[in-house]
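In this section we walk through a basic example: taking a raw amino acid sequence and producing a predicted 3D structure, encoded as discrete structure tokens. The instruction is simple. Fold the sequence below.
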Amino acid sequence: MAARGVNSRTRGASPSSRNARRPGPPVLAISGPSGSGKTWLLVRLIPALIVRGLKVAALKHSGHEHPLDKRGKDSARLRDAGAEAVIIQTPNAMALFGPPRESVDELVALLPKVDLVLVEGWKSSGLPKIEVHRRSVSREFLCESDRQVLAIATDERPPRRIPAFDADDVDGIAHFVVGWFAEGGTVSPRKRAPRGGRRRPARASR
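The resulting token sequence is shown next.
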């Protein structure tokens, strides 16, 4: 489905022609260490993309165990009885309780039809990424070794020449993401100058 308000090059394009790497909508990771502000950025970026005409879904990866299906609840009782998975449907939402999926593609297949999927985490995946970097959290840059990092939200100069934004420059980051989406959702829109607070690319002093 073509997004309203998105560059005309995406209109009429099939999902596979927009994203040659995988069927379905393009997937963009927001990656960085814990405490760097990934969720803070996402909850502001999603509305900024919606007003630009994109229908967005989000996936969150956590390395911690969470009691998603609490003991004693009907869903847990049904799984204890041997059900491989249980879906709970309410008037306002639904929830799926089941074994974890092994890939992002399997999770994306569970989502409703959208134009773009943003995932939080998955920094070790081969997904295209926007890195979130905060000097007070980590001195290491993901973009230094991962060429799938297309842009960075950071409070210091990155070690290689990629579009760099202040973390609160949501408008500039949203403009970059829309450009990436319009160009197919697989490569960086290198010739597109982001709107907003882009820094001048420069080599970091080491």
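Looking at the output, two observations stand out. The beta strands are 27-31, 56-60, 86-89, 94-97, 116-120, 129-133, 149-154, 164-165. The chain has a mean pLDDT of 78. In the next section we compare this with other chains.
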